[in-house]
Each structure stands twice: as C-alpha cells, then as structure tokens.
Amino acid sequence: MINQFRTWDEVLIESLADPEESVEYIDAYIEGYLEDGDKPFFIQGMKNVVDANRYIFNLSDKVSIKVKPFLNAINGQFMPTFEDISSLVDYFKSLYLADNILSQESPNIYKILDNRKTIRSDKNKKLTERQSQNIQYWKGLDNYVNRQNRFTYSPSDNISSRHDLKFGVKGFSLRASQTIKRKSISAALVLRGKNLIRNFYSLRIQDEEVEKAFGNKLEWWSKPKSEKRIYFVKHNVNPANKTDWYNQYEWLYSMLDKLYTVFYPRISSLVAYNT
To answer: What domains are there in the chain, each with its CATH number?
Structure first.
C-alpha cells in the first residue's frame, strides 16, 4: 500500500515555495535568532527557504546574481549578512508586485518601531523614597562619569532605575541600570531607530568575536517591536546601600567604557556601510 501521508518537511517546502510565505518565515527566523543566537538553527531555516525556491533561483543569471551571496553563505554553513538577506527579501517582494499580491505594508524586518519611553518626574507630584534615591544615585554616577571626561550625558532628575548616556552614534546609547529587588547593577549598549534589526543582527553574528574582546559572555536581549540591548550584569549588589555607591559607580563606568571600546569601531563601520 502506498503511503499517502506527507512528511512535515514536504509540507514545509511546499509552503515556502510561495514567496510571501518565505518572507514571513525569514522574518520569524530573524526574530528568533536575535533572541537566542542559535546560528545552526537559523542556517537550517534559511536552507529550507533555499531548497523550496531553488527553481526560482535557477531561472536566470539576473536572479542568481541577486541571491548568490545569500546562497553561498547558506551552502557554506555560515551566517549571511543582513544585506544578503535583504536582497533576497527584496527579490521576493518584486514577485509579490508582479502578482499583485503584496500588501501595502513591508515585511516586519523593515518596520520595527522605536518604542523608546522617557520617564520624567512630575514636579507637582511628591516623589517616593525610591524615586528620590534614584535621583541621588544617578547624580552621583553623572559626577563620577564627568570626572573621567569620557561620555556625555544630560543632567536631569532621573527617577527611573535606568540611566542612559550618549554613545556618539545615532540610534545607539549606553545604559546603566540598578535594581534593589534583584540586587544587581548592569551596563548595556542600547539600540533603537529605523535600522534597529539590521544593526542588531549585524552585531549578533559577531557575538563570539565581541565577547572575546569584552572578556565575558554578554546577554543579547531582543523582543519584537522593542529596543534591543547587549548587556552585562553584576549580581549580589545592593543599590540601596549608599556606602557602596562609589564601588558600584566604579564598576558601571568600567563596564560602560569596555562596551564603548568594543562596539564603537564595529558600529562606526556598520553605519558607514549603511550610508
């Protein structure tokens, strides 16, 4: 008796033969990779796209030229650049237009929104003890940073548990955070803006090289439609202990400085390439 049931791989490949399905699949895999950094899983997902659309890629030399860098990366079992993925997505997009099936919205990898929220104190509202302490904490850090003459900041009464400093490149900033509940402090590189996904992906595929230069394993935080963060945490620290603040400032500045040193040349090259 002939087996009439198809395997999951067969169903998947048939589905991905639709360019619109392939773009949604790619988008989902990018978001997944930005969260977990699983390179083999991502490459296998992209290989599924290649296998499902191989007949399209073989149609003409013009098509193969557009997607050749992407195909070379996947066939070689290494990560494609974001630009290679974008070229493939743009080609699929042209197929949508040809068939009049493209919606007016672009794929998600082009429309991540900047959801940055700024917390400001209300001068007419009485501050809590915790908010007052946050103001003192960040003023102390600002004074410490100012003495080092390394980063720029905008002095303000910051009632939040996190404090941003300028990185020197649009769409990027450094962030110091402290939380009494978790007894921890952290230093982070924060990414925002219209090229958010492109920039984070381009840094994420360098994670091994970056972490070697930094000297520690970093946390890569990514959620859909949100800012992205690359950070390092120090646990068993009590931000409520004012006698320990100087030590905490010393650690925060040291980690922020290290993040700047490791990422600034990479980000400068990345931004120059995108302009």
So the answer is: 8-110 (no CATH), 129-274 (3.30.1460)
